[in-house]
Structures are given as structure tokens and as C-alpha cells.
Fold this sequence. Notes:
Shape: globular
Number of helices: 14
CATH topology of the largest domain: Rossmann fold
Strand order of the largest sheet: 2-1-3-7-8
Number of strands: 8
Number of domains: 2
Amino acid sequence: xxxxxxxxxxxxxxxxxxxxxxxxxxxxxxxxxxxxxxxxxxxxxxxxxxxxxxxxxxxxxxxxxxxxxxxxxxxxxxxxxxxxxxxxxxxxxxxxxxxxxxxxxxxxxxxxxxxxxxxxxxxxxxxxxxxxxxxxxxxxxxxxxxxxxxxxxxxxxxxxxxxxxxxxxxxxxxxxxxxxxxxxxxxxxxxxxxxxxxxxxxxxxxxxxxxxxxxxxxxxxxxxxxxxxxxxxxxxxxxxxxxxxxxxxxxxxxxxxxxxxxxxxxxxxxxxxxxxxxxxxxxxxxxxxxxxxxxxxxxxxxxxxxxxxxxxxxxxxxxx
Length: 320
């Protein structure tokens, strides 16, 4: 398949795979919040999507977060799943690494991923403080310039007083170091700054390196969240069969970094992506309509997806 075929060939629903990762019921949502908590070892953590909904509340409460946001998105996902299954799309309701591998080895030419992207900013609950001292001891003897810079900026915080520094202080400092090493120094490394399209890629690459160094005490960032774990962009790209060619539609926030990894410079892969947040109340109905229209036959997925996107954009423009 060449790049021209991707825009001209007719696609059928049975050639499409839909992988949905957000929790679809309260029990799964509640379990995700638990798995994102500070008592879970860094390498086993997951559930940032649900955890951030809880954390955003003035008074964090799992049920309140579910009723406020989680339940609504879950209902949109279930409607998408139902319509996709009704027209013959291969649906994976609780997306995992193994399911993406299976999908791309099963003859599909269109892969649609609905999932949460965990950003590069380090949060206080991402740290496992008991391992910090051991990591700093290793960095102290390193000959690598990057690792020495990390030690020089973190060690004064750890040794400034007899009492242990707050996790939030260390987290903010690590985020600031990441931004500085990426070439975007700031004293306020919040999510908006670190996810900005003009710098997210460079910052994400540094975050990946920090995660390798701090794998025992830092929950990884700059990752896609599936039901089984967090996965780096390079790891997600590796889940696609080596000879796989087709279209990937990313219903994922800030997905340019992930898109570049999946595309891998190949002309026989096209990635539908976005630089900013995905709005589920718009994105998921768009995907439903795309699958339903595709079932009428004689349509190309990319062109149809763009038509549906344009139609929804016109509706919003008319509304405002």
C-alpha cells in the first residue's frame, strides 16, 4: 500500500479496529484511582485518567468524580462501541498492549485509539520517596553531564534541612529540570506550559530519559494509558506489526509525539492527530458517525473522517 492508496481506497467497517481504554463503569474507574495512588510501586501504576478527575475536585471523592465527568465519558464510549459493533468494526472494549498487537496482525487497515495521554509534568503523587536517596547516590558518581545536572539541582533540596522535603517540591524541581534540559527553562512548569505544541516534543523526550533514570521511584509520564499499564510512544509504535500499513486515528490528547512515533517516517501510514486536548463530547460522536457512514459502502476513511469533522465544525460555528 502506498500513500496514494490511503486516500483513494474504499474502506469497510470490518477493516477497522476500535480500541477503547477509558473505564466504562464505576468499578473500573474506582480501581484505576486506586492503582494511581502513592502506595502502588512506580512500575505498576496506572489510572491517571481517573485519578486526575478526582484530584481536580475541591474535595477529592471518587464517586463525585465519576458522576461529574467519568460517567459521561463512559456513556459516550459505550454508545460508540455499540454502533461500531453493529456495523462490523472489530472492537476492543478494554484496550491493552496485547490487543493492539492482535489488531494490527489481524488484517485491519484502520486503527482508532481512544485513550488518555499522560503528560510530561511530574506530580507529587508520582514520586516514591523511599527510593530518592538511592537514585541521587547513583547520579552523584555519574560521568554523564545530564545526570550530573540532575544531581546538582536535586541534591540541595534533599539536604537543605533535617526534615524531608515535600514530594511536591521535588516534583516541581524535576519538572523544571526537564524543561530546562529541553531548552525551555521556566520557574512554573505547569501542564499548560509543558504540553504546548511548540515544546511538548522536546520536553517529552527529556521526560522519557528521566523516567529511565528514575524508574524505581518515579511513575512514568509522556505515556499512553491502556487498561494494563502506561506505555511510552516508542513502545506503542512497536505494538504495530512491522509491515503494517494503514490509517491510525488518535482520539488522544496532545498526540503529535505519539503520532510521529507510530508513523516512523513511513509513507504507507497516515496518522490523524491533534496538538491540543481532545473533547470527548465532540470526538466520540464524530467517530460514531464516521463508522455508521462507512457502513453504507464506497467510502474512504480519511476523506469521510474529514467530512464528518468539517460538518461538526460547521455546526459549532453556527451555534456560536
